Amino acid sequence: MDSHNHENCVIHTEDLTKIYDGGAFPVRAVNDVHLHIEKGEFTTLVGPSGSGKTTLLNLIGGLDQPTQGKVWVKDVDISTLSKSQLIDFRLHNIGFVFQAYNLIPVLTARENIEFVMLLQKRSKAERKKRVFQLLREIGMEDKINHRPAQLSGGQQQRVAVARALASKPQFVLADEPTANLDSKTAKNLLDTMVKLNEEEHITFIFSTHDQRVMDRARRVITLVDGAIASDELKEEQHIIIG
Amino acid sequence: MLFIIAWKNIWRNKTRSLVVIISVMLGLWMGAFLLSYIFGMIDQRLKDAIGNEISHLQIHHPKHSDDHDPQYFIPKSRQLIADLEKNDSVKILSGRVLVDGMVASPAKSLGARIIGINVKKEDQLTQFAKNIVEGEFLKDSDKNKIIIGRKLADKLKVKLRNKVVLTFQDHEANIVAGAFRIKGIFKSYNSTLENNNLYVTASDLSNLLDISGEIHEIAILLNEADHVDPFVSQLRADYESLSIEGWKELAPELGLMIESLDQYMIIFLTIILLAISFGIVNTMLMAVLERVREIGMLMAIGMNSIRLFMMIFLETLLLVLVASPIGLLLAHFTISYLGEHGMDLSGIYQEGYASYGFKPIIYPKLETVYYLRIMVLVMITAVLASIYPAISAIRLDPVKAIRKI
Ligand SMILES: Nc1ncnc2c1ncn2[C@@H]1O[C@H](COP(=O)(O)OP(=O)(O)OP(=O)(O)O)[C@@H](O)[C@H]1O
Ligand SMILES: [Mg+2]
């Protein structure tokens, strides 16, 4: 119980369960998950399709409410927050990267990144500084005024990562961020995330089916039928390919 | 920022936005124009009725209106007319002798109203001479000459210079008759007048009625149309024994028309605005449904309901803000042009309009305040029309919306 108060702990779940009652019989999409994630981790959720990866990420990210159990982000029990409190909580604490449709199509790369900071009511000077810093980190200074349609899929995902970081979140959740990318582009995106993780100590948790992505992660959690089947920690051994 | 996003969102689906903009524009153009048309028509009718028929007010013997019995002439009318002519408010007035009777030609005999007029004064008061389409108008010195309506003449099968015989009761209920030669034939935009009224000189008629020099009606035109009500009250106080009526009492349908105008306008605008709002709701709903994933993403990354609502609301408002000035400007140009040149509907509608007393030429007009009112109403419509689409956006569940990815 004290573990979630640990200084370096960003996510802590207890007894976390999500049951979908919609169909002929109830589905335990997430089943009694106890999870502890520390600042600076680079974790992947893997498992067969339907094993509950997306559902677990949604619960951790405060997009969905658990049927049972608790989720702490730092020292906030987000399972007690109301819907509108959750929106505000997400804005200030959690970065999201989805498989697609991450960006507002009518805004440029730069405006997309700036958008979250506008929602946070950051000052103009601060926004400007951070947008350029992030664009530099993802290596896209030359594309600041491109709209999503003018960017490749990989570039869009990198902008999405920058957008997720713009709000200075506690951690970034990414649900199959490379699913729509070819392997070279996927590798580029991963390089960016690994670099951000190593240099800025950004905490990443993402789900994937992609073996190459799993190879880059330091911690691999395998879900089967909504429960944690294995939780492996690889000691500082990730290989930088290429 | 929301404003910019909303503005850019409008142009994502250019065709659809243009369709809404054009339909709002056309709706307003049509709406404003039709209003101006109604205003123009009523204004014209009022001007015609006051300027050519009833004048601003009329004075009668209080019992005269019951059955137009010729014995109820206005007592001491000469003195009254002299007094009124000295009054600064009075522009022009004229006395008339009235009787209901029969008019007979060799072919037919029909009921008619016979009006004895002081020719010069009458022409100044109602511009009657310009209605003469055949022959000439009367002169005060004419003896046994008559002016007849085109329609009545046709029914009686009589022509210019033919004779007709008028029969009616005098002030003592004796039957009297007189033969009159047709000097002129008139047409009127008001077909009731053309079917019913016969004009002779006041002296001819009062002689036949054996009330020489007396009159039944004084019609008065004032210098200021706005002064009718106070002037009528003043006269009533001064001449308690007489019946004095303003145009609203003389032609209650006109007064009612003006009073109910605002109600008609509201009903009419409501219909147009309703049509517009259905179009807006439909379009915005489509815009929301098309962007379910994007809206889900926005909610996920922390855009709250108020901001989301504002975004959809602004998109709606901007569409209308683009469309309505154009629509109203087009309406303004159309109305000013036609207001100056007039819309001649004589080809299409003459009969129908004339029977209601409307002239077939209409000068549409719309006061500036109505443009503003329409603008405000359209804005309110846009606000209301955005509520449902905006609420359906807020109601989206981000988890489900994103799962669609
Ligand atoms: N809204 C829902 N209603 C009912 N059942 C659901 C719903 N969402 C998910 N499920 C079920 O919950 C289980 C877990 O789904 P989830 O999407 O979390 O799996 P996943 O591991 O992300 O799969 P994938 O790798 O295909 O993305 C599945 O059996 C799925 O059918
Ligand atoms: Mg999934």
TrEMBL record, chain A:
Domain ABC transporter: 11-241
Gene Ontology MF terms in the entry: ATP binding
Record keywords, A-Z: ATP-binding, Nucleotide-binding, Transport
Superkingdom of the source species: Bacteria
One Pfam entry name: ABC_tran
Record's keyword annotation contains Endoplasmic reticulum: no
Leader peptide range in chain numbering: none
PROSITE patterns documented for this protein: ABC_TRANSPORTER_1, ABC_TRANSPORTER_2
Keyword Phosphoprotein: no
UniProt protein name: ABC transporter ATP-binding protein
Species, as recorded: Splendidivirga corallicola
Lineage: Bacteria, Pseudomonadati, Bacteroidota, Cytophagia, Cytophagales
From TrEMBL, chain B:
InterPro entries cross-referenced by the UniProt entry: ABC3_permease_C (IPR003838), Lipoprotein-release_system (IPR051447), MacB_PCD (IPR025857)
Keyword Transmembrane helix carried by entry: yes
Domain of life of the source: Bacteria
Membrane topology: Multi-pass membrane protein
Compartment(s) of residence: Cell membrane
Keywords attached to this entry: Cell membrane, Membrane, Transmembrane, Transmembrane helix
Stretches that traverse the bilayer: 18-39, 264-288, 308-335, 370-394
This protein's record includes keyword Transmembrane: yes
Chief location of this protein within or outside the cell: membrane
Domain ABC3 transporter permease C-terminal positions: 266-398
Residue ranges of every copy of the MacB-like periplasmic core domain listed in the record: 18-237
Pfam family, one: FtsX
UniProt family annotation: Belongs to the ABC-4 integral membrane protein family. LolC/E subfamily.
Protein name stated in the entry: FtsX-like permease family protein
Lineage, broadest ranks: Bacteria, Pseudomonadati, Bacteroidota, Cytophagia, Cytophagales
